[in-house]
Amino acid sequence: MSAPKQAYETAQALFAQAISQAITQDITQDIAQATTQATLHSSALTQNTRGNIRFYQLNHRYNRVDALALAYPTILALLGDDFFRAMALRYVDITPAQSANLSEDGATFSDFIAQFPPAAPYPYLADCARLDWVLHCAHFAENVAALDAQALVPYLSDAEQLGAIRLTFHPSLHLVSSSWAIQSIWQMHHGADTPTDWAKAESVLVWRQAALGEATRLIKPQDTAFLQSLQAGQSLGEALNMADDDFDLTDYLQFWLQEQLITGISN
Length: 267
Fold this sequence. Notes:
The chain has 14 helices and five strands. The protein folds into two domains: 3-122, no CATH class; 140-266, Alpha-Beta Complex (Outer Surface Protein A, domain 3), CATH 3.90.930. Helix content is 51%, strand content 11%. By secondary structure, the protein is mainly α. The strands form two sheets. Strands 2-3-4 form a three-stranded antiparallel sheet, sandwiched between helices. A hairpin with a 3-residue loop joins β3 and β4. GO terms for molecular function: DNA binding.
């Protein structure tokens, strides 16, 4: 079992334990209502029950912060533990959890960082967080079988037919574009040298390799419109209209097939 998944399972176990402690014979209301601040002061609950619910709330709050630290390791490394946790606590306090699954919590953290005044001196943070999040999502993405390369063969000999197809990609595939050197900053925290130019625009493809885990590929910024069009469901021909003159479709087709990223073809 990978370290991130093991850590999430541990956090989830603590979360479940807290819920079980909060549910006593004195609780007669739905747990969602019982954990609101108003209910904590309800005369219908015993002092022991109110204490258990308060424990659950605090435990849940800090479990969410721990989950954010796992999902955003680059931001944690850039800011340090104290800054990161103070920022994450503020996010947790104003952002309701969207799922009971801690691995799905924190999708809007990058938007929060972009508006968080103490983070203003670090304008690259929000985009670095976006890259962290898609790497996190790639790790937990559903396993979907790749299409056999032979399925493309009938289309390769006819440019019109090839241009009409629409491709479905593996759910772990994501694209992040930034005016900052987000991949270089991420690589710095995996042993690479410190970027010489943090303000260099970078566009990054992220996916999960079958046996090696998450992977990244730096692409030309001018290729982003083509890739965004494909992921939005446009045909290959429509997407190619967004590409520049020296775009290399063969290179992308080989890459997608080699990494087993095409999961469907439709007309």
